C-alpha cells in the first residue's frame, strides 16, 4: 500500500496526521514517521528558508519504483508506505518530507524508512535553493543522475 | 523543429520562464543538443562558468519521464527536461 505525492505549497499543506492515519492498521505491529525539516545552519551559513523544486512526474515515478523494489531487495512484503515531499518555499523548522511506514515488526520499519530516504536523495529529481540571512540565495550542489 | 527545454533546479536561472526554446534544423543527439545550450550560455550570459557546469553535469529526460542517454536522438518537435544534480529531502 503506497501513498506518494508532491505537495505544492501554493495550494496545500503537508500534514503529519494524514500520514499517521494512512499507516494505522491492526495488520501492522510497528509504524514509524520520519520528518525532514528546514534547519537554520548549513556550511556555516545562517539559513532563513529553502525553496524546493521538483520534476513532479519523475519524483512520483521514483517513489513508486523505490516502493516496488523493497519487496525483493529488503524482503519486506507487508507494508504501508506514505511519502510526501513539498515544492515551494519553507521557513525554518517547517516540514519538507514525510515518510511514514508500517510493517508487522519494528526492525523492518527502521530498515524501510532509512532505505526510502536514502534512495530518494539519490534518485528523486528534487532541488533545494537555500536562502540566507544576508538575503543571498543559492541552489545546493547535488548528485548527478546517470542515464541507464 | 522546435525543442522546448523544460528547466528545473539550478537551470531555472537560465531564463525567467520555466523553459527555453531552440529551433533545430535537423535531428540532433542529446550530446549535441547540450552544445547548443552551452552556445546559448556563451551568447546570453557571456559564457558564465557556473551555468556551463550545470549543463555539463545535468541529465536529460524525455516527455515520457525517462532519463535519456547522450546518444538519444531528437527527431521531431518535443519537450526535453534538464535534470541538474539532485538533492531533496
Provide a compact summary of the structure.
The complex is a heterodimer of chains A (148) and B (89). By secondary structure, chain A is α+β, with helices and mostly antiparallel strands.
| Overall CATH class of chain B | Alpha Beta
Instruction: Give the helices and strands of chain A as they follow along the chain.
Output: EHEEEHEEHEE
> Low-confidence parts of chain A lasting 5 or more residues at pLDDT below 50?
none
- The best one-word shape of chain A is globular
Return Rg of chain A in Å: 16 Å
Strand content of chain A: 35-45%
| Major β-sheet annotation of chain A | 8 strands, mixed
Interface with most residues: A-B, 31 and 22 residues
The first-level CATH class of chain A is given as: Alpha Beta
What's the total helix number of chain A? Answer: 3
Poorly predicted regions of chain B: none
Fourth-tier CATH superfamily name of chain A: Molybdopterin biosynthesis MoaE subunit
Number of domains of chain A: 1
At CATH's second level, what is the architecture of chain B?
Roll
Q: Bin the strand percentage of chain B.
A: 25-35%
Range of helix content of chain A: 25-40%
Largest sheet of chain B: 5 strands, mixed
Topology of this protein?
The complex is a heterodimer of chains A (148) and B (89).
Chain A: E1 2-8, H1 16-23, E2 30-37, E3 41-42, E4 45-54, H2 56-73, E5 80-91, E6 95-103, H3 106-123, E7 126-132, E8 137-139
Parallel strand pairs in A: 1-5
Antiparallel strand pairs in A: 2-6, 3-4, 4-5, 4-7, 5-6, 7-8
Chain B: E1 2-6, E2 19-23, E3 28-29, H1 30-45, H2 49-57, E4 59-61, E5 67-68, E6 73-74, E7 78-83
Parallel strand pairs in B: 1-7
Antiparallel strand pairs in B: 1-2, 3-6, 4-5, 4-7
Helix pairs in contact in B: 1-2
Amino acid at each position: 500500500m503506497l501513498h506518494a505525492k508532491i505537495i505544492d505549497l501554493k495550494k496545500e499543506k503537508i500534514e503529519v496526521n494524514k500520514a499517521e492515519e494512512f499507516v494505522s492498521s491492526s495488520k501492522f505491529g510497528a509504524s514509524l514517521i520520519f520528518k525532514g525539516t528546514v534547519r537554520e545552519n548549513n556550511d556555516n551559513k545562517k539559513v532563513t528558508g529553502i525553496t524546493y523544486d521538483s520534476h513532479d512526474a519523475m519524483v512520483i515515478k521514483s517513489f513508486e519504483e523505490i516502493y516496488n523494489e523493497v519487496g525483493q531487495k529488503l524482503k519486506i512484503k507487508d507494508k504501508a508506505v506514505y511519502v510526501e515531499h513539498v515544492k515551494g518555499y519553507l521557513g525554518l523548522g517547517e516540514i519538507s518530507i514525510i515518510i511514514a511506514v508500517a510493517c508487522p515488526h519494528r526492525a523492518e520499519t527502521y530498515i524501510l524508512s532509512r532505505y526510502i530516504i536514502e534512495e530518494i536523495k539519490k534518485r528523486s529529481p528534487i532541488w533545494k535553493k537555500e536562502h540566507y540571512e544576508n538575503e543571498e540565495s543559492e541552489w545546493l550542489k547535488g548528485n548527478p543522475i546517470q542515464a541507464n | 523543429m522546435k525543442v522546448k527545454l523544460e528547466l528545473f533546479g539550478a537551470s531555472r536561472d537560465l531564463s525567467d520562464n520555466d523553459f527555453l526554446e531552440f529551433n533545430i534544423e535537423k535531428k540532433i543527439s542529446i550530446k549535441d543538443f547540450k552544445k547548443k545550450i552551452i552556445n546559448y550560455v556563451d551568447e546570453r550570459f557571456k559564457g558564465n562558468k557556473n551555468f556551463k557546469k550545470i549543463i555539463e553535469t545535468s541529465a536529460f529526460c524525455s516527455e515520457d519521464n525517462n532519463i535519456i542517454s547522450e546518444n538519444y536522438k531528437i527527431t521531431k518537435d518535443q519537450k526535453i527536461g534538464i535534470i541538474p544534480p539532485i538533492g531533496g529531502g
